[in-house]
Amino acid sequence: MRTHYxxxxxxxxxxxACSAALLAMNQTAQASGFxxxxxxxxxxxxxxxxxxxPDSLSAIAYNPAAMAFHTGSAIExxxxxxxxxxxxxxxxxxxxxxANDVVAIPAFTAFTQLNETWSxxxxxxxxxxxxxxxxxxxxxxxxxxxxxxxxxxxxEIVAFSPxxxxxxxxxxxxxxxxxxxxxxxVIFNGDINAGMPGSNPAADLEGDGRGVGFNLGFMVxxxxxxxxxxxxxEANIPIEGTVxxxxxxxxxxxxxxxxxxxxxxxxxxxxxxxxxxxxxxxEFDVTRTGWSSFDTLVVDQDQLGTNIVxxxxxxxxANAYRIGISYDFSQATQLRIGYTFDETPQDDKFYSPRxxxxxxxxxxxxxxxxxxxxxxxxxxxxxxxxxxxTLDIDPTFVHAAPDAGETNGTSAVNGDYESSVHLFGIGIKxxxx
Length: 433
What we know:
This protein is mainly beta. It has one domain (41-432): Outer membrane protein transport protein (OMPP1/FadL/TodX) (Porin), CATH 2.40.160. It is built from one helix and 20 strands. It has one helix at residues 41-45; strands at residues 73-89, 94-96, 103-113, 118-133, 148-169, 172-192, 202-221, 225-232, 235-244, 257-264, 267-274, 280-289, 296-301, 307-312, 318-328, 333-342, 360-370, 375-386, 389-391, 415-432. The protein has a 14-stranded antiparallel beta barrel with strand order 1-3-4-5-6-7-8-11-12-15-16-17-18-20. β17 and β18 form a beta hairpin. The longest helix has 5 residues, at 41-45. The protein is elongated. Residues 1-32 and 398-405 have low confidence and may be disordered.
């Protein structure tokens, strides 16, 4: 289905995926490993291996430089359903996260060719996000008295990415654009462990914010072989919010307004695609995410700048290895499959139940069918299986942390964690010549 459509960009703001740092007097919990790579329905079916694809309209969301290889204009709409399944066994039985409900996410992409050299596009998606919600009492027996036990952690970020592509010649293109991040909502809730069951007052933090980064891309089409790459810069999101602590936790002359900065990591994806036969194409991509920049999350009281929370992450940069295969079953119908091995950036030393991350494997499949008058429908499915992860850290482990209440990666988080996700998607594209 080597159709040179035009227009792609979307919103696969793929549900929620999580993030972290809590509140309460002297303790915090951090979350990470919250990238969401699924940007549209075709990408879902190909396990997000699309950065070097000059043929599919949907590749524009992964690499705006692909716009230069399409004519006219197009629009793409889609709907993604995400069903997570997360549980932990701390030795007292298995507990399921209360955020395991199905989430529906709309997707949008748009593109237009300005002239033979320049193209303009807009992508709206959710490259980061997550939600975990542990029932009260899940970790009561493990967290030290006076510290904050994680309950609900939620991070929703939508990215608006206008971009332009420049066609150098018939074989190569460059692109550049802006990534405007809107943090719709961030929630870090918890219970303060008073040392006795049933006596844990709630400690809640909510906020939102906005930040800006940039993106760059390139694509080279040599006929049977094509190459591509895209880069999204780091972005800092200042967060403004409120903290709701138990009575007496803050002096009466202080407000409950707080501020923080959340640094989003840079992302680099490069790939190579081979049109093996007239019907079969195979692409291999590598994605590297700069999680090492996501090292510390500090929450300060607004008036005096007094520190309320300091949460350490200390993550490592991590890779994902992707392969996507498409086969033109007929002139109108394309079959798709994909596979990814995705590394976690989070080691045991800074593990947190707010973002119980692990290495994962992604298995996907889907189909695209071209109708008359420029219409195409796409459908896809993905199963994400996280490696089971067992935390069995020595209770004598001590963090080299500035906060004595820091419990990320300590014996307080010990347990057997299991996670998986089902994703279903359907979309429609309209190409205007």
